[in-house]
Amino acid sequence: MILMLSAVVAGIVCGRFLGFHLPSELVTGLLMVLVFVVGLDVGGEEKILSSIKANIPLILVQSSVTIGGTLLFAALGVLFLPLSLKEAMGVSAGFGWYSLSGVMISEMASPFLGAVSFAANIFREMIAIVCIPLLSRFSPLGSISLGGAASMDVLVGLIARHNSKKNTLVAFGQGVLVTLSVPVVISLFFRAG
Amino acid sequence: MFLLILAAFAVGLLLGMRGHLQKIKRMKLVLPITLFLLFVMGFELGTNEELVRQLPKIGWMSLSIALLASLGSFLAAFFLERLLRKVRKGWFE
Q1: CA gap A22, A125 in Å, rounded
Q2: Cβ contact (<8 Å) for A142 and B42?
Q3: Yes or no, beta carbons of B72 and A20 under 8 Å apart
């Protein structure tokens, strides 16, 4: 996370001093390569995919409530933030995958919204890191859903330390499904521009 | 643009499931590409003075969204859990 934040800060500093624009085709191309490789990674994990299949009903419901709960409550943001309903829900739709949501939304909507989404999803990951150890005893599934898309990579170690094996598997499955949903949900919100 | 990205994702997933292109997997491209994309995102932010002025606003807006989003998904999963416990005791050991 620190590495990723440094990349953004370095970019801001260089952009400030150099001041020329980079072609957006470059970003689209690199995004394609990125999601292609992530797809390849997820698809190639045969063992994990088959153990997810065994628990698929719970994982499907858990992923749906994670996505639904996030979007529903983010929608409340319209009440006190200068955002439209589409924007408030859209920026939350990184579900913790801040790098993809930030870059995608700054390309599809505006750099301002992209920055909001990037920061919102970093904050979400920090909230998850603090709250998962505190809440996992009280509500395992609730704590796992905080992790969103990151519960298959960045947060899986933390989740495993505080949860049963079965719930760790549910967390991983949720991470996979929510990760898959990120480009789809963001496209749904922002494709009309 | 979104169609291109979704297509790239779908093709990657399918090829991965069939065990193709293991060489590309071993190249560990995700981190360098991600870092470069974030650099580019920051770069675009930096060239836009208006946006640099708005950074404090971006901070509180994003924190509000993050708190709402986390609360929403926690509550949704919490109620799911209670429902499942009622329906089937001993689902979680």
Answers
A1: 29
A2: no
A3: no
- Tell me the pTM: 0.80
Q: Which of B4, B79, B59 is nearest to A31 (CA)?
A: B4
ipTM for the whole complex: 0.84
Which amino acid, one-letter code, is at B17? Answer: M
Q: Looking at the partner chain, which of A41, A99, A124 has a beta carbon nearest the beta carbon of B16?
A: A41
Share of chain A above pLDDT 90, in %: 43
Chain B residues 40-69 with a CB less than 8 Å from chain A: 40-48, 51-52, 54-55, 58-59, 61-69
What number is the average pLDDT over the span B50-57?
80
Q: What is the pLDDT of residue A63?
A: 96
Q: How far is CA A68 from the centre of its chain?
A: 14
Residue A20 has pLDDT above 90, yes or no: no
* A134 shares contact with chain B (CB less than 8 Å): no
Average pLDDT, chain B: 82
Beta-carbon count within 10 A of A191 CB: 12
Please report the pLDDT score of residue A1 as a whole number: 66
Question: Distance between CA B39 and CA A32 in Å, rounded?
Answer: 17
* Cβ neighbours for A185, distance < 8 A, ≥ 6 positions apart: A67, A71, A93
Please report residues of A whose CB lies closer than 8 A to that of B44. 11, 15, 21-22, 106, 111
Helix A85-92 to helix B55-87 angle (10° resolution) is: 70
For residue B81, what are its two tokens?
């859990």
